[in-house]
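Meet today's protein:

…
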Amino acid sequence: MADFNKKRVVITGLGAVTPLGNTLSDYWEGLISGRNGIDVITAFDASKHACRIAGEVKGFDPLDYVDRKDAKRMDRFAQFAVAASQQAIEDAQFQITDLNAEQVGVMIGTGVGGIKVLEDQQEIYLSRGPSRCSPFMVPMMIANMAAGLTAIHLGAKGPNSCPVTACAAGSNAIGDAFRLVQQGYAQAMVAGGTEAAITPLAVAGFASARALSTRNDDPAHASRPFDRDRDGFVMGEGCGVLLLEELEHALSRGAKIYAEIVGYGMTCDAYHMTAPVPGGEGAARSIQLALKDAGLQPQDINYINAHGTSTPANDPTETEAIKRALGDRAYEIAVSSTKSMTGHLLGGSGGIEGVATVMAVANDQVPPTINLENPDSGCDLDYVPNQSRALKVDVALSNSFGFGGHNVTLAFQKFSR
């Protein structure tokens, strides 16, 4: 039975599989050092593609988390989710048992799902016939399987779902999980976003839409949010997961607390299939709704982890949205795009960027926007160029915007009793 006396919700565990490293510590160290995670694509022969660079996860072994039989029956996006979720549970020293399993849920979003297995099976179908297609094709490719397989792996029997809201999916998952714990439907939620779409068809599709950078001869400088010389985003892959826990439950077991999640705003542009509404009206409302939900004012905000895709459409529009939502305070807030280092994880981006935002609050350290050499004339905020910054971060926001006009903002706050 839900309890509508709103409960406080804290983050007690984090997990990350990213182009900067496959653990939380490696990912955070990479962000703070301004390390580039983008290079030439190795997952397939991209020599005929217009874009031949991406932020690939390197050195990941699913057998560190599941046995060989299970790994073969999981697409890469689901493997990432299981790995990052197990990391988050272990980081929190959280035990899922028969006594609490029904109170622990999983909410993991994705934009694309198992596109690699779909491409592979289509090739088998065309070359060898329909009878040779794998019986595991459908359960491997469907988007909800990251959340479902994670629950199976962890034994989590509580609420389980999968937002599929393009590049806002990971943040929607965290926000929806926040609501479930806040309203008493679960004691804890494993929440985040995952993606593994660096495949021939996906790269070709985004490139045909002229969304991707073609700076193939200089991958280290290809993702350059807010810079006038940007020419598109760079695809990335990976997963970021937060363990959200009801405060009193966390305190009762002596859990360490990274931060508190206090606000969730989501809106729709209702404007265009892929382009943001001019002026950023929808994104601005998302920011304002997150602040209203949290009971915060613009002057309370210290840092914003921007959606910051390195595209001509997003960067100035998001800048306008931040100014529209926060007024003059916008010029005093540190804003950075960690996509400059990881690339754009599509539905997984809100997951790893949620992790980065929580770490900024916990460590009073703000990641940089690397490759910002010549700011675009329409991008005039403090984007923390090229070097991380020590900064007291009491409140931070994380923005995610997706095709279809989806806008999500999450608000995190330094925990105090």
The chain has 13 helices and 14 strands. The chain has a mean pLDDT of 97. The domain at 10-252 is CATH 3.40.47.10 (Peroxisomal Thiolase; Chain A, domain 1). The chain has two domains: 10-252, 263-413.
